[in-house]
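Team,

Forwarding the record for the chain on the shared tracking sheet. I've put the sequence and predicted structure together so nobody has to dig through attachments.
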Amino acid sequence: MTMADCSELKESIADAQRLLQYASIKGIEVPPDLLAQIVGAQALSITESEDPATFKGQEEFWSALSKLSVLTKPATTDSVRHAAASKPDRWATLWARISRSGVRVPVQTSTSELAVRKARFWALVGLLLVAIFQSYYEVGQSTATKYTQASTVVAEERMRGKELTEARSRALLAKAAEFEISRIDQEHAKSRLKIAEASEQTERRGHWMKAMLFWHQWPAIAADDPQAASAQTLRIQGILEGWLALLRNFVLPIAWSFLGAALYVSRALAEDIRGMAYAPERAILHRSRYYMGMVAGFVAAKFFPTSAGVDFGEVTPFAVALLVGYSVEVLFALLDKLIGAFSTK
């Protein structure tokens, strides 16, 4: 046995001691003979591992460690070791140097705690992205819709105003009663008031849409050229609707599914830490979970481009992206069934 093998044996004996400590804390009953074999294995750490006289003891130790690992599942020697291991906390160390307060601050933190901090950071990033993009989308959608509604009101009322003007002219030619002409004038006044209110709304919504596309440089429009101003506002509305379509079809499904994946990783970490089952190797799975969640959420949003009614209400495509990002197995199971239906044995 080489020096590296000897070191591995000593580390494994130390891991077995930690596993015994975990079992005692969790109230896991360990058979006396198994306990005696683990405790007695400490003698192997001070003997020469290449000595044939220790081979029997080493065999008993590895057998006992295997049985102990079964008893303490899901905790393993690897997860218990890394739960106890610590790494320098760069932020705490940096703050201690900057503040120079003389107060002793912890500069070591466990591997699982670092993983929780990373998961919390990415969950907050996902929440922030969803809040920004979703707010922009909702405000932009509402602004564009209300601008269209107000523009429609202006067009309809102007048409109605022409009809009322013609009706008044006919009434004057026919020498209609005074109350009939007065009624037409009142209707015309109401129509002009609606036009004024709707025009004010279109102007305000136009400024909002222009502000939402702040990165564009718009040419100045003369105040006495309403036709050019209306054409520019329509162009702004078209560009804004294009950006909103990009958000709705691509960005928001990915952002919502990323948030769902971040929630899953946070929950999985909580379960691992509760059962002392976290090991750094799981970080690789968690990183891949973010990628799979985003892809699955985007694909699911394409499968459900409109709201879908279910027993408990209505589920929007963004909610579907969140759910699939949290549980990618749902989409993968559906894809497996579709592939199985068209594939031959």
